[in-house]
Amino acid sequence: MIPKKDITIYDIARVLNLSPATVSRGLKDHPAINIKTRKKITEMAKEMGYRSNNFASNLRRQKTNTIGIIVHELNSNFITSVLAGIEKVTTEAGYDLIIGHSSETYKKEAANAHNLFHKRVDGLIASLAFDTRDLDHFDPYVQKGIPIVFFDRVEEHHYGTRIIIDNVKAGYEATSHLIARGCRNIAHITANLNRNVYADRLKGYQQALKDNGLPFEPANLLVNDLGEDSAIRSAKQVLAMAPRPDGVFITNDFCAAVFLHAVLEAGVDVPGDLAIVGFNNDAISKITVPQLTTINYPGEEMGERAARSLVDQLAGLSSSRSTDTIIIRSELLVRGSTQPR
Question: Count of CB atoms within 10 A of residue 104's CB?
């Protein structure tokens, strides 16, 4: 079946015996065209199935009114809340979004960056994958002066704004809380230490131990992908340690929830035998029994700040070559996994 060709303003003009310029203005609700003619034009356009080609129009103005987003995963309460914050600000500013998903791989992240560049996005918001080593795939944006805002997982770079929390401080607070409640042998379960978020939380953990006169034991550091299977393996590793840790700081709430379930099934009392702190304040942290003590990571606020920074750059209110770092406030939320009942 041969597809029908798109209806153009010339087709509408021919049917109504009007000039294409009059039809174009009428469709844009231009006051120079009288109301009766405007109504006639819009009704005929609807009847004929006319669709305005905003993309072509925007390209003529060297603007597509689209913003690209690259995220490392979609199955995440944190990322969902960040996207909600981005969407809130960009919708108000009149931008559409195109989302690319890297699946935690540099290769796919680079392909997404290339694809979004060729879709002529006006700006880009990105969070880096586990194994991203360099940012060369963003060079075309730099060369074209297209603004980039990195959030959460970032790297030091000569271009682009960074939106983060103070992960060192958050890791320090989580570990200090465990120490304050009496823990002296604290394990740390985290992910790829090439990423700033996990490397910085480890620094905070180590500094809290040092400041409280406790040694850092390399055997207490478990690095994995924070998925379900890894969480179960980590629980078995911790339970097999001698001496067994009396506290654990886990850098992801989903992993912490699975870990909690696994140790409870093994007969461990939480928090009596083992206190647990998670990270992110995901919804799952409120429905575990006991509820998880966690670090509140305000994803929606981070999304709003990232989008507002980008929209301001696109509006010329700040430089597209900005290398600012914006730090969002996080906080420790104390719940049952560290507080004796």
Answer: 17
